[in-house]
Design goal:
It is a single chain. The protein is α/β, with parallel strands linked by helices. Helix 3 packs across helix 4 and helix 3 packs across helix 8.
């Protein structure tokens, strides 16, 4: 292996989630320049340290924050450091589907306890926690989640096991995923084949234009619609104005995980509340079958696919 730069950490990957952004590159929905590295929802072990690294030790279990945060720009000062104007400094690399990688230490977050598969959900869970914060939920709100994939599973976990717990409905185009998640979200949540009436708050986590259209139709006048679907490559989105104009709907596009502390909050929630019951919603695939995992993912009955690398 190459020698480490002074501010770098060498990590050994244990588990890595298969994200929708990975899938979009795999199926050619996004323009990519090859070779390309993928995989960022990881949990890993620190195996070597650069000479100037502080706060991280050999053997630590870590995950990735994804974001460079300078702490000085107007976005960082306004508590929007995930939008840091220096954020794309070229130090981060998606390499979670490998055995080892060298990371700038600023991107890594130490996780307490032993390495567990569920901790690979810390990054996507932090993203939906940020979306939940944007939505400003009230206890009396009728809430709908559109999409029972990885993000829908994470938001369902946050709503039914986080604080405060919320009543919500969830719907998905795949009955098998909807049935699986319905079995674990009671009593706070319930799976519905189609939205039932109008909702105060709707989260679109479908990753599809059809899902976003359904979310637009389900949000009530004066309600809040929060989308995390990255579908800019597949639609002009002209229906959004037709759907939302004259209804005074607050439409938010939530991106990444907000402040760095949200990632720590997600890791703590997983430590405290992730149980074998939730594990049933996840398929774990060995790294040797990575190609097959990508090919099967669109029709997989599991809400989430996680790749076991050396865990």
């Amino acid at each position: 292996m190459n020698s480490l730069a002074s501010e770098q950490v060498r990590i050994r990957f244990l588990y890595c989630g298969l994200c929708g952004s990975d899938m979009s590159r795999f199926v050619g929905q996004r323009d990519v320049t090859f070779p390309v590295s993928m995989g960022h929802e990881f949990v890993a072990e620190v195996v070597e340290l650069g000479g100037d690294v502080a706060g991280i030790r050999l053997g630590d279990i870590v995950t990735s924050d994804l974001n460079y945060r300078c702490g000085r720009c107007h976005q960082c000062r306004a508590r929007r450091s995930h939008l840091c104007i220096e954020g794309q400094v070229g130090l981060f690399s998606n390499r979670g589907f490998a055995e080892y990688a060298d990371f700038d230490a600023s991107y890594l977050l130490r996780l307490g306890g032993a390495a567990r598969m569920g901790l690979a959900l810390a990054e996507p869970l932090s993203c939906v926690l940020h979306a939940r914060e944007w939505a400003r939920l009230l206890r009396e709100d009728r809430v709908l989640v559109v999409g029972a994939g990885g993000l829908g599973m994470c938001l369902s976990f946050a709503l039914s096991r986080g604080s405060p717990r919320m009543q919500f409905d969830i719907t998905d185009a795949m009955p098998c995923r909807l049935s699986a998640i319905d079995a674990v979200i009671s009593p706070e949540g319930r799976g519905v084949a189609e939205p039932e009436g109008e909702y105060d708050v709707v989260f679109d986590l479908s990753g599809t234009e059809a899902g976003l259209r359904k979310a637009c139709d389900a949000v009530k006048a004066g309600g809040r619609l929060c989308s995390m679907s990255h579908i800019e490559w597949s639609t002009a989105g002209t229906y959004l104005l037709r759907s939302l104009t004259r209804r005074d709907v607050t439409f938010t596009v939530s991106y990444l995980n907000g402040e760095r502390g949200t990632l720590l909050q997600a890791a703590r929630l997983l430590d405290a509340m992730w149980t074998p019951t939730w594990h049933q919603l996840v398929e774990v695939v060995p790294i040797d079958d990575l190609q097959g995992a990508f090919e099967r993912r669109p029709g997989s009955p599991s809400c989430k696919t996680i790749i076991a690398i050396s865990g």
